[in-house]
Amino acid sequence: MTSADVELEAIVQRGLGAYRAGLFFEAHELWEVGWRDEPHPVRKAFLQGLILVAAAMHKLTRMRSPSGAVRLLSKAHARLAGVPDGTGGVAIGLLLDDIARAASAIERLASEGRTELDASLLPRMEAHGEAASSASSASSAPSAPTIARPRS
User: Of the four, 11, 16, 44, 106, which is 20 to 30 A from 30 by CA?
Assistant: First the structure.
């Protein structure tokens, strides 16, 4: 692993803490710092994809804009589609599947006039190599609480 790989994984981990806590704007900001300075085009696309996922979740949960969230998820999917699995230590294939699943669920919610998203539909950003066990446990996990909550 190169020093650039180690640095990228550190940037990813900082944002993941915020993302997993439902602090999507904060995750976006943490990843954006790394994105601005990243010279490598694939790593830059990877970070931009993460930023867009976090922005989509912020758009849905805080701004109550399902159409904006779906649009950002579509852009995230496009950015991440060419990124090799394991970049930044993340299971990209799982994330891409989850982005598509979340976008579909958000569209269904929007058709019902709702903006809350069950936490089990949040696009997962799992460590590369742990995705297989995570994918199988997610399908049998009990329903999680919703992640839409007002910001104070």
Answer: 106
